[in-house]
Amino acid sequence: xxxxxxxxxxxxxxxxxxxxxxxxxxxxxxxxxxxxxxxxxxxxxxxxxxxxxxxxxxxxxxxxxxxxxxxxxxxxxxxxxxxxxxxxxxxxxxxxxxxxxxxxxxxxxxxxxxxxxxxxxxxxxxxxxxxxxxxxxxxxxxxxxxxxxxxxxxxxxxxxxxxxxxxxxxxxxxxxxxxxxxxxxxxxxxxxxxxxxxxxxxxxxxxxxxxxxxxxxxxxxxxxxxxxxxxxxxxxxxxxxxxxxxxxxxxxxxxxxxxxxxxxxxxxxxxxxxxxxxxxxxxxxxxxxxxxxxxxxxxxxxxxxxxxxxxxxxxxxxxxxxxxxxxxxxxxxxxxxxxxxxxxxxxxxxxxxxxxxxxxxxxxxxxxxxxxxxxxxxxxxxxxxxxxxxxxxxxxxxxxxxxxxxxxxxxxxxxxxxxxxxxxxxxxxxxxxxxxxxxxxxxxxxxxxxxxxxxxxxxxxxxxxxxxxxxxxxxxxxxxxxxxxxxxxxxxxxxxxxxxxxxxxxxxxxxxxxxxxxxxxxxxxxxxxxxxxxxxxxxxxxxxxxxxxxxxxxxxxxxxxxxxxxxxxxxxxxxxxxxxxxxxxxxxxxxxxxxxxxxxxxxxxxxxxxxxxxxxxxxxxxxxxxxxxxxxxxxxxxxxxxxxxxxxxxxxxxxxxxxxxxxxxxxxxxxxxxxxxxxxxxxxxxxxxxxxxxxxxxxxxxxxxxxxxxxxxxxxxxxxxxxxxxxxxxxxxxxxxxxxxxxxxxxxxxxxxxxxxxxxxxxxxxxxxxxxxxxxxxxxxxxxxxxxxxxxxxxxxxxxxxxxxxxxx
Length: 809
Prior knowledge:
This protein has 809 residues and is an alpha+beta fold.
């Protein structure tokens, strides 16, 4: 029953589904290829060493980037001696890293990693000029343009140090003498085994495993040595890619389903004729499935091919915006592409399932149908699903409204909005007519015929109106909800910072990953240090090293017991309330931990804190002594700020409060806008598709308008006005659904943070989404109806003007 002639004849009905499947599967295949390529990579600076011995790696949950416990200095020395003795090992090299950033032309340059000179062998990065650094000398990347003998200022955690350049290397990094690097670096977590020429790597790895008894990494397994910063960046990119792929597949199902639902509604007489001549419901179903698969397979194949070609472009874009670490590239692989093709076929079948069942239920008497009025009731299952979603959303909204800020009010707000949006989308054929009647009431009061026609067409063609309004409702509702939540959350944290910080100015990094001790002290500021403490069982506790005065100035801590003065002693710590309850700690208990340099201590618990940004608070001097690589995120100034050191600048408190999480907010906002743009693009395709399909079924209506005296311009204006009315209807419903949920979340934020949190909605972006939908709907409606309008009126037919009704005489 399915022929190519049928496909050619029905191509306008299939075009929308083809386009959205093509775009959706292109996005899915690009995302899947990027996901398959986004595994941990062997760092370039370690790629020349075939075997590494690593500390035991703890199992971490999703989104947990805590470091592993380093070896103690004694363990490193013992391991190095035993690994050096393995046959085939030329040298065992501890991988020591620290903060070191050259200052050229008065500004810190890109690249902030320092290494021991012996670590250059791990790449290897050979000398291109000069000699290896001795004590008090430095070797640099030749791309910096410095020659041996020149002097360069290098920022370290303690401040700027001027070094003579001993030589240049063919790779990034700042290289110091091993003894000097050991003083600046923290604990060692990996030792590279540089092998002799011709050595048996497998035998070396086996011997290392027997000698060290730890984790031995070879081949691609060395990717586990990537930095936590790269791992976090890669994780963020995975979330964005997964969301894009899921959104593309989900919207594709909806649009394909909508496309074939409208097509089935327009072809009821055709299906009735088929039933009248003996076609069974099963045959009708198979015909609809066959048409869908013919379109879906073609569109999916084209989309997957486009995704494979555009994958490298997506990879470059992800690196540029910060969703993947430098060096990431999308690699072509047949398995992800085959999976994407299978997803496209499944999406097609899922989208057409409901339409095929509806087509199979058409009765033979439908062949006698003449009227185009769509008065069929909604299916019972759609009623039940729509009412259930609305009830779930309203229940979640009530829970969010009663929140005191101590529960998951954000999740409740999201469930509330998404539940009502989904419910209204399902109930749109029943909800849209009364709302359209109310909204279009002023049109009926006007004198002209255009307003009356616009109103009556919107109310009569219920399914067409709902099919156009629903994607706008979903797109605008989700855009308002997601963007408003992101912006309101950022504003909430900024408001809390602005009201809790008791300082006159803040020193922040300028071109550096953090503040050095010298940069803060030069401006008369105090800074805290953030680090990690390691429990005997391998657990990691976050720690802040600070003075009592600094914590009072920052306003971050609420005491449960004890006093901040305990931090004046290096053998006393304060612990978070959750940690005290979980470990049974109380004042006088001991907390055995290890530091970043691998050494251990057993400080005494002197108090418990409720509100803090870390699990443990301790003396700043103690933390600095055991973590020589920690940099401060900011420093607070009481009184007038002096000129800061290199790599720092002064900000007032309100500006700092608004920009403190600028980089993280930027990534979140880019991801948010990306999802909004993708969803708007799909909504646009759905709108254009609906307009194109409905135009094919309105030839008789448009002919009647032309025969009644309407000009081509008047008919097209009526069609455009209908589309504008429907888009405004969907946009208004989206705003009505999303804003109450946002207001509830804003109230819960204000309660939780004990501050007046403003509601921030990016109206320019939202209005841009609505404007894009309006333009697409109006243009698509006019362009689709224009050929039918021009064919509708017979030659020589009289035309009368009816903008304000018929004229007498």
